[in-house]
Amino acid sequence: MSTGQAPHTGAESEAGAGAQARTPGTGARQGDEGLYLREVPARVKDLSVAYRSNGRDITVAENVSFEVAAGRTLAVVGESGSGKSTVAGALLGHLRHGSRITSGSVEVAGRDVFSLGGRDLRALRAHDIAMVGQNAGNALTPSMRVGTQLEEALMARVPARAERRAEARALLEKVGLPGPDRIGRRYPHQLSGGQQQRVAIAMALAARPRVLVLDEPTTALDVVTQARILDLVADLSAELGLATVLVSHDLGVVARMADEVVVMREGAVVEAAPAAELFAAPRHPYTRRLLASVPRVSDAGLAEVGEDGTRTVRDRAPVPEDAPEVVSLEDVVVRYGRSRAVDGVSLGLRRGEVLALVGESGSGKSTLAWSLAGLRAPASGRMRLHGEQEGDLAAGARKRPLALRRRIQLAFQNADTSLNPRRIAREAVRRPLRFFGLASRSDADARARGLIEDVALDPALSDRLPQQLSGGQRQRVGIARALAGGPDVVVADEVTTALDVSVQASVLALLDDLRTERDLAFVFISHDLAVVRGIADRVAVMKDGRVVEEGPVGAVFAGPNHPYTRRLMEAVLEPDTAGGAGSDAAGGAAGAAPDASEGPDGAATQGTAEGEWIDLGGGHRIRRGGE
C-alpha cells in the first residue's frame, strides 16, 4: 500500500477481503452485518504535522491516513522519530509545543478533533477516547490512593459517591486485580509495575470510551506480566467493542495484538496491511529490516541485518575455560525490612563472561545486581572481587575504597534520567575520570572523547546536551561513562528495554565487542529472553529472591527446565513471519524439569552438596521442587 493511503481497516475493504470482526464478549468473529464492523470511531485522513525551526517548517508527519473500526486493533510501528507518537497524540487533540496541523483531519466519534473548542475537546477526552501510556507509575498521582483516583475519573459520569465507589471496585475486578478494596487503599508506589498498568487501564475504561490509545503499554514489563496485560486488553477490546490504536516498537506484541499494521518512517507511512499479510510477506525494505532485527530465542548469537533485510547471526566468541573468576557470591541475603529480596544466592562470574539475570518484577534480580555495585549492602553472605585489587564487596559503595569502587560500574536502563540534562555528554564521561583520579584536568577531555569514540559515537556529539541526542546515542554515552573507571565488571540493568529493535541490535553488538576487546565481565539484567539468548554466556533464573535455575545459555534454552523458567519462555512473543500471528518462542525449552532422581535422559543425577539442586551436568542445575 502506498504512502498516505488508508490501510484496509474500514468496512468496505474488509468485506472485499472476507475479513471479520471480533464479536464483543466472545473473542469470536462476526460478519459484515455486525454493529462493530460498521462503526469506525477513529479516522485519520491525509494528516501532516510540522513545527517551525530557524524560519522553516520541519515535517514530523506527512499525509498519514488510516481508520480503525470498532472491535479492531490497529498498530502503528516505527523507530524513534518516525512520527508514530505524534499521530497517536493527534487522536486526543494533543500536539507537542510548537507543532501544528498543516493539512488533513483527525476524526474521533464522528467529530473533527482539531475543530473543537476547549470545552468540547475536554468532553471528547472524558467520554469518547482514552489513553494508556508507557509508564503508569508516572501517570498515577503518587500522593493519592488508587481507589480515589479511579473514583475521580468516574466523577463526570457517575455523580453519586456510593455508586462511584461500587463501580471503581468493579473496574478493578474487571482488570484482574484481586481484592479490589485492598488494592484501592494502596498508593501507586505500593503496587508492582503490572498492577500499576492495570490501574491505568481501569482509569482509561472508566469513561467507557469508544477509542483506546495504547502507547508502548508493556515496554517495561516482564514477559509474564506483559502476557497478562495483553490478554486483558484483547478481552476488554472485544467485550466493549473498542477501536484500539497500539503504538509500539515491539513487533512480537504487535503480531499478537493487531488486526492491521501501519509502518512509519521519518513521518511517512511506508507500508500498511493486515497484520498476517505484513508479517508473512513484508513488501517495503524498511519493514523487512525491522522484522529481521527482532532477536529470537533460536539465535545462538546476535543478529546482524543488512540494508536489504538479509539476516545473519554472528558467531559468539566463547569464554576460555581457564578464565579466572572475577566475582564470587556465597549465600547472599539482601533484606528490605523483614522481607528477603535476595535469599541465599551463590553465583560466580568469570572474566570476559556475560551472566544474565532473568525473572519477573520482584524476583530480586535488580536488587542482587545493585548490591554487587554497592547500592544496597547485603544482610549476610560473602561477596568478593578477585584479582589485583581483591576486596570485600559486602560493604556499601561509600565504604569501599576508590580503587575497589571503580572496578564495578553500572549502566542504567534509562539514560534520559541517569544523565544530567544540563551537562554535555563529554562532561558525563569526564567526571568519573577525575573522580577516580585516572586523568589530570588537562588529559580528561581527550580521554573522554576517546571513550565516546570507543562506543561508536561521533566525537562531535560529545558537545551536545542529552536532549540533543537520540535514545541510542544517550545509551552509548551511559556505557562510555561506565567504562571510564576502567572496571572489571559492568552491571547492565535493562539497557536496551526502551530502544527500537535496530538500535537495540547495535547497542548489543557494541556490548559484545567491548566484552572481547576489554576482557570485561557483564551482569546483564533483562526481561527479554530473546536478547538474553543472543548476548549471554550463562543464565541465572530468579524467583522470589532465589535462583531456581542456572547454566550455560544453550543448555538452559534447550531444556529441560524448572517449571518457572518454562513459564517465562512460554510467555515470550516473537513475530511469526510464516503466518503473521504472534507466537510464543518456547522452542526447545518445552522439556519439564526431571524428578529429583533423574537427569534429562532419565539417568540418575548427583545432587549438590546443599541437597536442593538437580545437577544436569555441564554447569546446568535446577532447584528441586516446583513453583
> Helical region count?
23
Roughly how much helix do the residues carry, as a percent range?
25-40%
The major pleated sheet works out as:
8 strands, mixed
Let me know the CATH homologous superfamily of the domain at 11-128 and 211-283: P-loop containing nucleotide triphosphate hydrolases
> In CATH's first tier, which class of the domain at 11-128 and 211-283 applies?
Alpha Beta
Q: What is the CATH topology classification name of the domain at 11-128 and 211-283?
A: Rossmann fold
- The number of strands is 28
Q: How do the strands of the widest beta sheet line up side by side? A: 20-21-22-17-23-24-28-27
Beta-strand content: 25-35%
Q: Termini separation (Å)?
A: 48 Å
CATH architecture descriptor name of the domain at 11-128 and 211-283:
3-Layer(aba) Sandwich
Q: Helix/strand/pairing class, anyone?
A: alpha/beta
Low-confidence stretches: 1-37, 595-609
What is the residue-mean pLDDT, rounded to a whole number?
Answer: 84
What's the shape?
A: globular
Radius of gyration, in Å, reads 26 Å
Provide the fold topology.
Elements: H1 11-17, E1 21-22, E2 29-30, H2 35-38, E3 42-53, E4 56-68, E5 73-77, H3 84-91, E6 99-108, E7 111-112, H4 118-127, E8 129-132, H5 136-139, H6 146-154, H7 161-174, H8 180-184, H9 193-205, E9 211-215, H10 223-240, E10 243-247, H11 251-257, E11 260-265, E12 268-274, H12 275-280, H13 285-293, E13 303-305, E14 311-313, E15 325-336, E16 339-350, E17 354-358, H14 365-373, E18 380-385, E19 391-392, H15 402-405, E20 408-411, H16 415-418, H17 425-435, H18 441-454, H19 471-483, E21 489-493, H20 501-518, E22 521-525, H21 529-535, E23 538-543, E24 546-552, H22 553-558, H23 563-570, E25 573-575, E26 582-584, E27 613-617, E28 620-623
Parallel strand pairs: 5-10, 5-11, 8-9, 9-10, 17-22, 17-23, 20-21, 21-22
Antiparallel strand pairs: 1-2, 3-4, 3-6, 6-7, 11-12, 13-14, 15-16, 15-18, 18-19, 23-24, 24-28, 25-26, 27-28
Helix pairs in contact: 6-7, 6-9, 7-9, 9-10, 17-18, 17-19, 18-19
